[in-house]
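Hey, can you fold this one?
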Amino acid sequence: MSKLATVNPSRRFLVGIDTGGTYTDAVACDLTTTDVVNKAKVPTNHDDLGACVSAALRAVIDGSLVSASEIALVSISTTLATNALVEGVGRPAALIAIGFDDATLNRGGLKQVLDQDPVVSLRGGHSSHGQEIAPLDLAPLKMALTDINSRVDAYAIVGSFSVRNSAHEAAVADLIRTATSKPVTCSHELSEQLNGPKRAVTALLNARLIALVNNLLLAVEASMASLEVTAPLMIVRGDGSLASAAFVRHRPIETILSGPAASVLGSSALAGIGDAVVADLGGTTTDVAVIVDGKPVSNSKGALVGDHATMIDAIRVHTAGIGGDSHVRNAEFDTPQLSIGPRRVIPLVVAAQDMDGIRQMLESQTRNPISLDTDGIYLWLRDTASGWKARSKTEEHILHALEGATSGCAYQDVVTSGLQRNAINRLLNAGVVAMAGFTPTDAMHVLERDVRYESELAILGARLLARQRDRFGQPLATSEVDMSEQVYRGVALKIATTILRAAGDHDDLPVEYMENPLVMQALPTSGMQRDGVLSMHVGLNRPLIAVGAPAALYFPEVGRLLNTDFVVPEHFEVANALGAATGMITLSTNITVSAPRRGLFRVHIGDEPKTFYELSRAQEFAEFVAGEEVATKMALAGANAYDLSNNWVTKEVAVADRPFFVEAVLTTTATGRPSTTSI
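Sure. Predicted structure:
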């Protein structure tokens, strides 16, 4: 274990917490030096993230090192919003669309996002220059509210060209707030970009997340109160910046990709490298991103989460379903390699601490002369199973069988048909059933590179997998050690492939280039001496920073494959939590100046665009308004002092060999440290 820093006499600390797929990490670092003075890890319970954060906070507070009264700031990064969007578990919300027809809205993929949520279409909307093209008709909404209000938890509003004039969105929001007590999201508040359908998707997804994220924040605040922590609470946004709990309550969608963003910031700080590739290897996934000047590169097109294209500025990250807890099993007959991930299972060496039946299963299957592809897999009901209603007779059969086995049982004792296999997969995805199986964590115990648990059960699991047959009828491995070495190399190859995709994407190369058979052949042999005529090499021109709990185990092989230097910094296992603790508040606003006709310049702000006859006057006014707007946002986000910058991008076209002004877009950005004044 890496040593902790000597406590600074100032006795003021920042606390960062990250809720990961396997563990919830916490660090306490010195307010002045950011040296880590205490750190903790607790298992993540996805059914109660608030309790995980509470346990991590409690674990990192140690009276001899850090006391509650000395904490100046608490910051958390969370996968809640990302997972909710991917899994489709947000709360129901209604969409109010102003000035759109159905065909136009569906171009943004809205139909798939809506599912069963209600839509109310209203006459109204504005032109690209902010002029009203039709009066707003609120009558249909007044009639619909009586019917739909009991079916939804929130409302989303999108108006045609509302980023050029928000008057109609504001009027609809006022009506809903007067008639109901439920939260309202206006699309122009989340993005200043055009593309109404995409703004509709973004606003609707935000509305669905409000209650979920608010519940997490309430749980964290209650935990802080119980521990007598009075410091401000901050949340990591998807671009790596921080925002107050009050700010995030209204804009929870901005926390998508919060975890990877925090990891990148923490990695750069720990390694002291500003330009690099960061790979964060966790229990469930590996996240890869590029950093430039110490900041993560963002996705200018908007964050893509699952199948949802949003307008939220977030880190440009590549995620692969490969980690220390990825399920390792025999591949399909048409695949020559082991199958590793993307399903996460509980490693045999971990699950056996609580499930006595796992040892009996492994020993029994080892004595069986017949090898099955389900050997080494164990199932049991999770605590959430009591509230689950079976969706089919097959599910009912499986649940009944597992209820009869109070401490779990072997997979093959429950699942014996294709229908049952499909059903168990649904139950696993829904979190009703838990599964243990052979994982890279087990393989590392066989190879004695990980010694946290007894290795005996890992050896049995590797032996069962090794004797299974490949597509040519040959055993997968000659021994449990050979099997585990294959897993080690397979995990490293998957990580290296993900890193190459992220690097290629940063260089604007199509992802399929990185999946070219020649590249895939070059990667495993990269850096090796070959006798052939052809020399093949792929790799990185920048250093690689490796973080995450299993990083030190796999990145020597990853570095060899990519023929690049890699750094595993001190405190690598809690880089994400450190990134949360040491982040900055960065917010921006965009204002567009258009030209309805030559010599006329319109500044698009709120519901009252302003018109000028000189471009310089229009720009001066835009900068003044943007400064005030950013100041309001920064105060809500939790910053007292900040630096401000303005950047103009002007679009012109040539008409008769003379420049003709089309529009100018101002981006005003503020960056400052969070206030550490106790609440």
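The CA atoms of residues 201 and 528 lie 49 Å apart. Let me know if you want another pass with a different chain boundary.
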